[in-house]
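agent> fetching stored inputs for the iron/sulfur cluster docking request
agent> found them:
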Amino acid sequence: MTDSIKIDILRYRPESDNEPVWQSYDVPFTNEMSLLEALAYIKDELDPTLSYRWSCRMAICGSCGMMVNGVPKLGCKTFLRDYKNGMKVEALANFPIERDLVVDMSDFIEKLEAIKPYIINDNPRALEDGCHTQSPKQMAQYKQFSMCINCGLCYAACPQYGLDKSFTGPAALALLHRYNQDSRDAGKAERMKIVNAEEGAWGCTFVGYCSKVCPKDVDPAAAIQLGKVDSAKDYVIAMFKPGE
Ligand code: SF4
Ligand code: FES
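agent> prediction call returned; pasting tokens
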């Protein structure tokens, strides 16, 4: 039975470090302990200068994304028992490091905002019209794409976003698809400008790793490919019916 585990963390304290440096910690091991709990142990008992983000501790808030042995993971959904030989923990890839495991997600947030992540309807229903109901079939069109917790793991996994930060990226394109598929929404034409752009769906080279790392089983790679189908339809319509 292992009674402790070695956790290497890539530290970056901008006031004293010119570049990130590795630091090792020995943490008491239990089968139930998550990486997030291990980081809390380090901060409380070994080194109060360690910085990391967290909130819900249950894979809901999306705050605790980090690289574990090179793979994007949620700290609260990663358990020491799966890394008995030790783990290397670093800030989420493809984002600028602010401090230790804290990254600057401004670009990601701007991309989410840009796709107009809300129901667009030029003719809102009056109160007396009652609820705008949807059938289970209509809801199934978008439900899985609405499960995203904005953790950014898919951006850390995306080689295309790593190469070119103008690429709209997996979660934003999946969220866009979610609203385009919603029977209550009328904003598809507006959002398709983002899908059709060079940095939109066609920027994706279909590596598919984004969907593999998603902790909520959203399938952003599928959403992007469906976006390409919509985009191709737009192209054909524009060819035969210019102006529509
Ligand atoms: S699609 Fe998945 S991996 Fe990407 S931000 Fe949403 S929950 Fe995270
Ligand atoms: S702490 Fe909220 S997702 Fe991990």
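agent> quick read of the result: Residues 220-240 form the longest helix (21 residues).
agent> awaiting further instructions
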